[in-house]
UniProtKB/TrEMBL annotation:
It is an enzyme of class 3 (hydrolase). It comes from the Bacteria. The keyword Nucleus does not apply. InterPro entries: Inosine/uridine_hydrolase_dom (IPR001910), IUNH (IPR023186), Ribo_hydro-like (IPR036452). Keywords: Glycosidase, Hydrolase. SUPFAM superfamilies: Nucleoside hydrolase. This is Inosine-uridine preferring nucleoside hydrolase. The lineage of its organism: Bacteria, Bacillati, Bacillota, Bacilli, Bacillales. GO terms for biological process: purine nucleoside catabolic process. Residues 36-339 form the Inosine/uridine-preferring nucleoside hydrolase domain.
Length: 347
């Protein structure tokens, strides 16, 4: 396992041009097929994200697992089961990563929103696939070295695996194309504490390292994901559209069971039964940035507060000259996202 110590947080690392304004870099990379690694703590919305991602025209280099909704071991197991359900190519590797935060004990799984097994208590067949030897952080470092400035990293859980990779290679921010995270809350309440979103609160020190390192970072947080409410109306559309062969029937049945569990977990939150698609929206924005409106902000992570631990603190003061370190999604085209999500899962 990966055991690099953490005596210091890495210093700010910069590209030759600030990533937010480097148009040459943006144009050059838009023309390439995305090479993607997705880091998951596979609960229900991670599972839906994997199913969605498998239907996209990307090169999925691998999937890494971290603690969060469930243990890292369970996240890896759930990921293998979802790959099996989808009939995904056998050559997509799955690596297990961090089993706990950098400096704090893990607070345990989120059974209320994901069930005891992370998949809404839906039992899927054991997978014939296996978790790969080695640590998720080493895999990230290896692929960033192999594909300089081509790699899209999607992080759908706590940022511990990325912090571990950064500790091993402090130049990692220069080597990746982009990092898109589902996490944070700027102008809306948190969902782990009154001000903190669960993935950031899950390992505040790891998030601090990542936000301070100079990554080309996009934050898809609760400001937009809590409005991405997938309802029974959307589920009915999915049931009408899905392909009617045996494989399609099996997938849509499992998706329906997963969503029904989430609908129950969020019962009473909205007038219409539904649930937010946190992770799938982040994946969709990573693959098509036009789905969301973004604002450059300077965002820091609170690592000391009693009431505010894990808060994503944006400096929004008028007239304050601060250099942005993240693109924060503030609006999204939800119906376009839902249509794409439904069409992808119905294939």
């Amino acid at each position: 396992m990966y055991l690099t110590p953490f005596p210091l947080f890495p210093s700010q690392t910069k590209r030759k041009k600030p990533f937010l304004h480097n148009k040459d870099w943006q144009v050059r990379n838009l023309a390439r097929k995305k090479k993607v690694i997705v880091d998951v703590d596979t609960g229900i919305d991670d599972a839906l994200s994997i199913l969605y991602l498998l239907k996209q025209d990307v090169e999925l280099l691998g999937i890494t697992a971290v603690f969060g909704n469930v243990s890292a071991e369970r996240a890896a197991e759930n990921t293998l089961k979802i790959l099996g359900l989808a009939g995904a190519p056998q050559d997509i590797p799955v690596f297990q990563g961090a089993e706990q935060p950098l400096f704090r004990p893990w607070q345990g799984p989120s059974a209320r929103f994901h069930g005891k097994n992370g998949l809404g208590n839906v039992e899927l067949p054991e997978s014939a696939r296996s978790v790969q030897p080695g640590h998720a952080a080493d895999f990230i470092v290896q692929k960033a070295e192999e594909y300089p400035e081509e790699l899209t990293l999607l992080f759908l859980g706590p940022l511990t695996n990325l912090a571990l990779a950064l500790a091993k290679d402090p130049r990692l921010p220069e080597k990746v194309k982009e990092v898109v995270i589902m996490g944070g809350a700027i102008r809306v309440p948190g969902n782990a504490t009154p001000v903190s979103e669960a993935n950031i609160a899950g390992d505040p020190e790891a998030a601090h390292m990542v936000f301070s390192a100079g990554f080309p970072l996009t934050m898809v947080g609760l400001d937009v994901t809590m409005k991405a409410i997938f309802t029974e109306r959307h589920l009915k559309l999915l049931e009408e559209k899905y392909r009617k062969d045996a494989g399609g029937q099996k997938i849509v049945r499992v998706v329906k069971e997963l969503l029904e569990f989430r609908f129950g977990a969020y019962a009473g939150y909205w007038e219409e039964r539904g649930c937010p698609l946190h992770d799938p929206l982040a994946v969709a924005v990573a693959l098509d940035p036009s789905l969301a409106e973004k604002v450059p902000m300077q965002v820091q992570i609170e690592t000391k507060g009693t009431l505010s631990l894990g808060a994503t603190v944006a400096d929004l003061r008028i007239g304050r000259a601060v250099e942005p370190n993240v693109l924060v999604c503030v609006k999204a085209d939800y119906e376009r996202f839902f249509n794409r999500f439904i069409d992808a899962l119905a294939k």
